[in-house]
Inverse folding.
């Protein structure tokens, strides 16, 4: 943070007041992150009930502060005094205002109702999925859809309710823009995916049988993550059911993975993905903790970083030319498994009904499906009852077969049960952004030369400067424009997929 | 909790109000316990600064509530309505009142000053200890001593300031009572310790050389803890620099230990000790979380449980007759090391200058030393400057030699730097209580027969009923009286030490 001399103490004072509140808010939320991380990693089962009470208490305190009169006053005071301040301060105030207005536009009653509905829905969804019984989940989803529409009306939108929900995850991005990108992607993706699946089926590269010891996987993963720049003095890797990355505060960004003794690449690609998220969080300006200038900007940008290191780096030939010898030291089974076969294994493609099991070549088809269904739900073009058949029709059109049941169809994802409508699109935005950023970064000859010999220091420096340093002071599309010279587009991503899979 | 029918809804209402506040307070504190546990186990080094800010924020919220007008009103209301309520409710209200009065007797300014002083003192102490330079620590200790005296005056006491400080850890127990017990102990302890050290030196039982694999230690420790009744669905064992046990909420009581590859008994006795603390916490009435009836009563009772399982059970012959074969399976080095030698190893005694390295036979001499010094400090009989020489004189008298330097003398413990004057005595009270409770429990023939064949289910049941179930509804001396028939005394402990060491 730079403090301009003009205005002197009084300017410092108002800046301090709203910024202090923002930092306090972030500290409270970071306490929630610690106990949330513990819940996913080390919490003994009997502690689950009390943990929910702890999380509820701390979330309520964070929300209370973020919609308080104290916050409103400090923000108003700062805005009134901001004329002529430095651009970073102006951006911070603009983003704090955006957040405050969105938060206060929802009445407390609605926030509580939404939280209760999704808490009940999560249980119902888990049961419905286990039994593959959509009818159990339908009334909950109807309620969550109503709440999402109600929120959208309160937040306001230009064209359609989805706009207002997408704003939660990808600010200043319209549904129409996303739809235009996805419309360009879809026909090409279908062609690429079909080709990749066909080639993969002909190849059938099968990893030598395990066990791949968990200890060796941990050693290998940590060496790779560290070599890419992940700072273990400010982070760690633990085990959880689902891989994730979370920031517990400045200097404490942790990730998790899970281990499959039959395939070490499962935990490794989990770690590569989360390392991308972790490098972004570790690269945010640490002194600006709690301010927009010290925060990540959007899910589509966050996911660009995870996909960059997972796919563009981690599935590349130079990466494995460097790391395969060390993998062979850790996992003696690989001794007679040629590098070419290994590359085919980590790039295999198949049509799976399950999104989280999908590979790089087919993943976005799952997202396009969900985006279309959500948009039609919110527009009222399909009812909740019609979701299973709409899902299956669209799935058949995209993948050429119908999921065996709703468990492997419209009940597979947790997102809707958490009220997370509008979220899915950001996964594919992340894929587009990753390719576009990687292409732009490689225009720098030092980056390109480094990538060829699997030395990614210059690539990370480029991301630090163009993606991490701005924090949330730029809208995602503006960040992409500044970093790459163009707004988010599909060409770099399609070029990447074509060159890797066709 | 039983709710009497008399009084109906209105009685329920006031009970609920103060009890709800007490539970909320405990929930807030338990959030502090989670992030405190993480600080000692998994926090990456760069996260330390922010963790301090998180802990400060959450502690302030807990304190704020505990001294609030809301609390005062709800408590007053409940007391006014309590006539004729059940004894448990009466005890809960009495203890909540005791806590409230103590907390509110200290002005906010003093609490902040004490917290800042001990925060600075901890750093100064760490440096002073490393350099063995008492002069660096002296001004901090002087300030902490002044603050302790100031607190004692505000809290009030019958005979001497130490009374008021001891009350923090061992309520309703006077300095004179402790001094009388220690005066009885001292001559006998010196005799026993000298005999034990002499015998041990003649025997020289040396454990076969390591490495004792950490994985095998973890397996063995967990099997032992589980067999004693520690519930791993409501707890876990992690690694930390210092072994400790902490309750993170009902259903979540965790312990830590540390591993020495040259001696597996180091981590094991850490686990046995913490298992005792853990069994107590897991045995408290879970539905009364946050109320005195669901809380531990004092450090002297807490320590009685850790010492019981560590020393009376874990260093007994029947215990090892059962577990030694399994230890030999885990640690092949023990194959030719006879059980008698092993027992001599875990009962070895020597005069060490360091309290935390002291064995069962010499431990209490360290406590008697500290109790005497603290009492004289608080009475103004010695100045801070005189502490090193007072310490060394008393140490020479008790142990027959002088510590090589203050690092191994009066600077060795962290307690004073945290403002924890009055704490040390509870370690020895725990030893006395453990022996007295164990003796009383064995008057039950099922308990005695179980202990003979290393089956401790009946012993645990006895502790559950007599020590854990009352929570903090009885004063520690009354709990001892009810459980054993006598107030805290020295005879059971001395008899135990004599029979084991002479």
């Amino acid at each position: 943070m730079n403090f301009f001399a003009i205005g002197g103490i009084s300017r410092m004072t108002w800046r301090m007041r709203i910024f202090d509140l923002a930092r306090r808010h972030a500290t409270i939320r970071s306490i929630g992150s610690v106990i949330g991380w513990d819940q996913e990693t080390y919490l003994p089962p009997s502690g689950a009930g009390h943990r929910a009470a702890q999380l509820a208490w701390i979330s309520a305190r964070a929300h209370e502060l973020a919609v308080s009169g104290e916050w409103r006053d400090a923000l108003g005071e700062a805005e009134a005094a901001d004329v002529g301040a430095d651009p970073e301060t102006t951006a911070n105030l603009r983003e704090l205002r955006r957040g405050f207005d969105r938060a206060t536009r929802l009445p407390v009653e609605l926030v509580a109702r939404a939280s209760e509905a999704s808490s009940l829905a999560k249980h119902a969804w888990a049961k419905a999925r286990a039994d593959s019984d959509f009818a159990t989940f339908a009334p909950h989803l109807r309620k969550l859809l109503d709440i999402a529409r109600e929120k959208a009306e309160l937040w306001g939108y230009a064209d359609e309710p989805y706009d207002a929900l997408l704003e939660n995850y990808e600010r200043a991005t319209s549904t129409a823009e996303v739809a235009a990108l996805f419309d360009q992607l879809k026909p090409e993706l279908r062609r690429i995916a079909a080709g990749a699946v066909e080639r993969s089926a002909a190849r059938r590269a099968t990893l030598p049988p395990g066990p791949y010891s968990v200890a060796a996987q941990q050693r290998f993963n940590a060496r790779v993550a560290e070599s890419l720049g992940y700072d273990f003095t400010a982070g760690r890797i633990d085990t959880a059911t689902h891989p994730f990355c979370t920031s517990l505060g400045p200097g404490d960004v942790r990730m998790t993975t899970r281990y499959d003794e039959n395939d070490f690449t499962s935990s490794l690609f989990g770690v590569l993905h989360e390392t991308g998220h972790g490098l972004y969080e570790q690269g945010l300006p640490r002194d600006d903790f709690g301010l927009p200038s010290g925060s990540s900007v959007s899910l589509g940008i966050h996911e660009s970083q995870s996909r960059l290191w997972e796919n563009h780096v981690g599935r590349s030939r130079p990466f494995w030319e460097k790391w395969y010898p060390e993998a062979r030291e850790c996992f003696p089974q690989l001794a007679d498994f040629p590098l070419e076969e290994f590359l085919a294994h980590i790039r295999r493609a198949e049509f799976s009904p399950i999104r989280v099991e999908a590979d790089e070549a087919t993943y976005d088809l799952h997202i396009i499906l969900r985006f279309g269904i959500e948009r039609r739900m919110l527009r009222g073009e399909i009812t909740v009852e019609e979701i299973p058949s709409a899902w299956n029709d669209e799935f058949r059109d995209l993948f050429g077969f119908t999921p065996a049941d709703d468990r492997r169809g419209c009940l597979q994802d947790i997102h809707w049960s958490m009220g997370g409508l509008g979220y899915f699109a950001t996964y594919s935005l992340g894929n587009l952004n990753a390719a576009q950023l990687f292409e732009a970064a490689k225009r720098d000859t030092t980056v390109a030369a480094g990538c060829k010999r699997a030395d990614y220091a210059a690539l990370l420096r480029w991301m630090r400067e163009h993606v991490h340093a701005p924090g949330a002071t730029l809208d995602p599309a503006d960040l992409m424009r500044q970093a790459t010279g163009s707004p988010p587009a599909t060409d770099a991503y399609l070029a990447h997929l074509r060159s890797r899979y066709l």
Observations:
- The longest strand of chain B covers residues 253-257.
- Residues 8-105 of chain B form one domain.
